[in-house]
Amino acid sequence: MQLSHRITHLTGGGSDGWEVFYRARQMKADGIPVTELTIGEHDIGTDPSILAAMNAAAVGGHTGYAMVPGIDTLRDTVAARVQAQSGVPTTRHNVLITPGGQSALFAAHNATCNAGDTALFIDPYYATYPGTIRGVGAVPVAVQAHADNAFQPRAADIAGVASKGAASLLVNSPNNPTGVVYSRETLEGIAEVCKTYDLWLISDEVYDTQVWEGEHISPRALPDMAERTLVVGSMSKSHAMTGSRCGWIVGPEEVIEHLINLATHTTYGVPGFIQDAADFALNAGDELEKEVAAPFERRRALARDLLANQNTVGLVPAQGAMYLMLDMRATGLSGEEFANMLLDTHKIAVMPGESFGQAAHGHIRVAMTIPDDQFLAALKTLCDMAAEISNKRAAE
Ligand SMILES: Cc1ncc(COP(=O)(O)O)c(C=O)c1O
Questions:
Q1: What CATH number matches the domain at 64-285, 3.40.50.360, 3.30.1460.10, 3.40.50.300, 3.40.640.10?
Q2: What interhelical angle do 48-59 and 272-282 show, nearest 10?
Q3: 59: phi then psi, degrees, rounded to nearest 5
Q4: Site to substitute for ligand 1 among 39, 126, 322, most atoms within 8 A of C-beta
Q5: I need a labelling partner for 39 at 20 to 30 A (CA). Which of 119, 177, 236, 369 fits?
């Protein structure tokens, strides 16, 4: 009996660059206290008012099969939200509710890529991207965004690869792992490349409520892009509902119709009581979203003050999302070497930039997901260790 090539090669084989993370988790399991600044999980739970809505919906009987495309109320709410944000006319027929953004990413690539097609994505990238693309039988090809361009991807670099033939391009702004928000210029360049080379654009916007500087622009709103753009959204980050698994795809009606077929034959939708809770949360007003985002904005400000008083660790412009990307190249170490040393010496776990591709070599990603005082103390320790290494290097 043989397993499919697709499933056995999903992760691409070899090191996935997540060894530091696994090691930190093992240390914690062994009872060693580790300060974790690794994954994108809030340090608050889902708001009690959302849980109460979820409970009321479940107790009220919304526990059977829910409508596969999503319940009408939530599809309408998502459509209205996306329309208000982007100005693009959007109805429930443009919306499919999915079990989280991850499932939406998989569905979007399923809709746009045939087996063997090239699917482009930007490096540094959210760790699941290449596996998601392989999961639909397409071939993931990375286009690097460079540190010297503040990790804004260059249209010419994308065009260079797209000109060899590709079906889709996946972008993510606000970006995980860099915290960069793509500028209008970047997005307009991307849109032109998509039109020139007839690419589908899959726009992962799950951090759209976490913008600290600049503005979030959905590329679906750019001229002639609505017909070729699939937007991925999620309740996970905006409402601290990571475990509820509720997200969406917004795109052309025809694509959504096909994706409803896909959902019927794969997920069979999202539990009704979760959708009711999501609908409640999205209608609860901006305050709730701001409350969920506030700790990250606050910690980013704390980090910027701290980092301004030293000159070893560089901060990539932290414009959005719940992460800081730090440039550690002055230490002469790779991100992985620095992260391993930090874990061994100070029991602080961060993600090596190399966990997210080649472009963030010599960087580390710090998740701003622990209480302010602990976050600041960990960052100070990190900076002190970096300065020590770099001073020692200079003296050699
Ligand atoms: C960039 C990005 N996209 C998608 C996801 C998936 O989120 P979810 O499936 O919880 O909606 C994440 C989760 O961390 C992410 O960082």
A1: 3.40.640.10
A2: 140
A3: -65, -35
A4: 126
A5: 119
Q: Are strands 118-123 and 168-172 parallel, antiparallel or unpaired?
A: parallel
Q: Which residues of the chain have pLDDT under 70?
A: 14-15
CB 246 within 8 Å of CB 271: no
Instruction: Decide whether any atom of ligand 1 lies within 6 Å of the 275 Cβ.
Output: no
- Ligand 1 close to Cβ of residue 234 (< 6 A): yes
Strand ranges across the sheet with 247-250: 95-98, 247-250, 229-234, 200-204, 168-172, 118-123, 139-144
Task: Kindly compute the dihedral angle of the four CA atoms of residues 130, 133, 137, 140, in this order, to the nearest 10 degrees.
Answer: -50
Residue 76 structure tokens: 């309408």
Task: Parse the chain into domains and list their residue ranges.
Answer: 5-45+287-395, 64-285
pLDDT of residue 14: 64
The distance of Cα 17 from the centroid of its chain, to the nearest Å, equals 17
Q: Which amino acid, one-letter code, is at 110?
A: N
Contact between 22 and 350 (Cβ < 8 Å)? no
Enter the tokens of residue 176: 């995980």
And the tokens for 327? 């440039």
**Smallest CA separation from ligand 1 atom 14, residue:** 40
- Given the candidates 3.90.1150.10, 3.40.50.150, 3.40.50.1460, 3.40.50.720, the CATH classification of the domain at 5-45+287-395 is 3.90.1150.10
Question: pLDDT (tens digit, 9 = 90+) per residue, 230-278?
Answer: 999 999 999 999 999 999 999 999 999 999 999 999 999 999 999 999 9
**Predicted confidence (pLDDT) per residue in 292-332, tens digit:** 999 999 999 999 999 999 999 999 999 999 999 999 999 99
